[in-house]
Amino acid sequence: MDIQSGTKNMPKRRITAMIDQADILRLEEIAQRQRVSLAWVIRDAVSGYLAEKSECDNGLHGAVSSVRCK
Fold first, then answer.
1. Model pLDDT, residue 6
2. DSSP letters of 19-70?
3. Dihedral of alpha carbons 57, 40, 34, 1, sign
4. Most CB contacts within 10 A, which of 5, 52, 64, 66?
5. Backbone dihedral angles phi then psi of residue 12, each to the nearest 5 degrees
6. How far apart are the C-alpha atoms of 16 and 1, rounded to whole Å?
7. What is the pLDDT of residue 9?
8. Is 49 exposed, middle or buried (0-12, 13-18, 19+ CB in 10 A)?
9. What is the CA angle 19-31-51, rounded to 5?
10. Which pLDDT score is estimated for 57?
11. Which residues 6+ apart lie within 8 Å of 27 measured at CB?
């Protein structure tokens, strides 16, 4: 999934978030495996989360995914 499509020219903002060390280590492992930056992995995760929430908000989820839409 290309998280940049549609957002390439949009202004960006820097944010600060407190993330558990165990989660950071897992994110860093993913970044190393995919040979991308930690920031890219986090942006990709946020993009996926927002896409999932958008599906839930639009009523496009089925019975199985409705558990995640809470």
1. 58
2. --HHHHHHHHHHHHHHT--HHHHHHHHHHHHHHHHHHHHTT---TTGGGG--
3. positive
4. 52
5. -115, 155
6. 24
7. 80
8. exposed
9. 70
10. 79
11. 19, 38, 41, 42, 45
Assign 10 to helix, strand or coil. coil
Q: Which tokens go with 57?
A: 């908000």
Quick one: tokens of 12?
A: 């960006």
- Residue 28 is predicted with a pLDDT of 98
User: 40 near 28, Cβ under 8 Å?
Assistant: no
**Amino acid at site 29:** E
Q: Could you give the C-alpha distances from 30 to 33, 56, 63, in angstroms and in order?
A: 5, 26, 30
Q: What is the pLDDT along the chain (70 residues), one digit of tens a residue?
A: 445 455 668 898 999 999 999 999 999 999 999 999 999 999 999 999 999 998 887 765 555 555 567 6
